[in-house]
């Protein structure tokens, strides 16, 4: 199994631009989680899906952030417009059930200038 | 809101010394997980604890879940340079939403 796949691995963009992060969970996993990691705030859960349905998006910082999961093998996290304070590492994770092991992807390192 | 705190934030040890990180939740947890993140890497699952007072061992690592299910600890015996990284606990308050602790960054000096 290839594990959780994220793309791009690195993204550098300018303030105001749209950023789209992509995630392919492990096949057969019903739960998908998006996290953001910064030095100041640590690892924060942004949103999670169960069977492609968003269950809890209370961690999404503001309306500039949106996430979708059109099918069981693909999810996106979009930031529009991006701001320098969005610079962070964004991780996607999946699990077979909500309370089992979460498998993290390698992350996308986002830098907004 | 629900919080999970870890102490210490940083720990430097000489190779061969023991290391312990503590995790405290503001609410009772259904279960708790521990993860390790190497520098520049992603969190990797270590273990899950479910029962009150549970103790689990993985080679030199010992994990404990408190009787009240609000705290947990990870103890490493005789640290090695391969133990370097940040250790996170992640508490589940009863939903499927894990709250990650602040992490303890371990540095092992050879």
Count of individual helical segments of chain B: 0
| Radius of gyration of chain A, taken over Cα atoms and rounded to an integer in Å | 13 Å
Average pLDDT over all residues of chain A: 94
Separation, N- and C-terminal Cα atoms of chain B: 40 Å
Percent of residues in β-strands of chain A? over 45%
Order of helices and strands of chain A: EEEEEEEEEEE
* Low-pLDDT stretches of chain B: none
Please compute the radius of gyration of chain B using only Cα atoms: 13 Å
Query: Major sheet of chain A, described briefly?
Result: 7 strands, mixed
Distance between the termini of chain A: 36 Å
Helix/sheet category of chain A: mainly beta
Please tally the β strands of chain B and state the result: 11
The percentage helix of chain B is under 10%
Low-confidence spans of chain A: pLDDT under 50, at least 5 residues?
A: none
Largest interface: A-B, 23 and 21 residues
**Oligomer kind:** heterodimer
What does the overall shape of chain A look like?
globular
Main β sheet profile of chain B = 6 strands, mixed
Count of extended strands of chain A: 11
Draw up the topology in text.
The complex is a heterodimer of chains A (113) and B (110).
Chain A (H helix, E strand, L loop, with lengths): L4 E3 L2 E4 L5 E6 L6 E8 L3 E9 L2 E4 L8 E7 L2 E6 L8 E8 L7 E2 L3 E5 L1
Parallel strand pairs in A: 2-11
Antiparallel strand pairs in A: 1-3, 3-8, 4-5, 4-9, 5-6, 7-8, 9-10, 9-11
Chain B lengths: L3 E4 L2 E5 L4 E7 L5 E7 L6 E6 L5 E4 L2 E5 L5 E6 L8 E8 L6 E2 L3 E6 L1
Keywords:
heterodimer; A: 113 residues; mainly beta; 7-stranded mixed β-sheet; 4-stranded antiparallel β-sheet; 11 strands; 0% helix; 55% strand; B: 110 residues; 6-stranded mixed β-sheet; 5-stranded antiparallel β-sheet
């Amino acid at each position: 199994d290839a594990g959780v796949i994220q793309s791009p691995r690195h993204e550098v963009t300018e303030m105001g631009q749209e950023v789209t992060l992509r995630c392919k969970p492990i096949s057969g996993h019903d739960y998908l989680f998006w996290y953001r990691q910064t030095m100041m705030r640590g690892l924060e859960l942004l949103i999670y899906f169960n069977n492609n349905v968003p269950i809890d998006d209370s961690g999404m910082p503001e309306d500039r952030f949106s996430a979708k999961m059109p099918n069981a093998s693909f999810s996106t996290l979009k930031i529009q417009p991006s701001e320098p304070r969005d610079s962070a590492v964004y991780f996607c994770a999946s699990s077979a059930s909500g309370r089992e092991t979460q498998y993290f992807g390698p992350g996308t390192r986002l830098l907004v200038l | 809101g629900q919080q999970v705190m870890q102490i210490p934030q940083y720990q430097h040890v000489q190779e061969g010394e023991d290391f312990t990180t503590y995790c405290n939740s503001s609410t009772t947890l259904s279960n708790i997980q521990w993860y390790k993140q190497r520098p520049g890497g992603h969190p990797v699952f270590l273990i899950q604890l479910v029962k009150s007072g549970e103790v689990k061992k993985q080679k030199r690592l010992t994990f404990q879940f408190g009787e009240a299910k609000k705290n947990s600890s990870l103890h490493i015996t005789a640290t090695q340079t391969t133990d370097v990284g940040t250790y996170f606990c992640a508490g589940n308050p009863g939903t499927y939403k894990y709250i990650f602790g602040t992490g303890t960054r371990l540095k092992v000096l050879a």
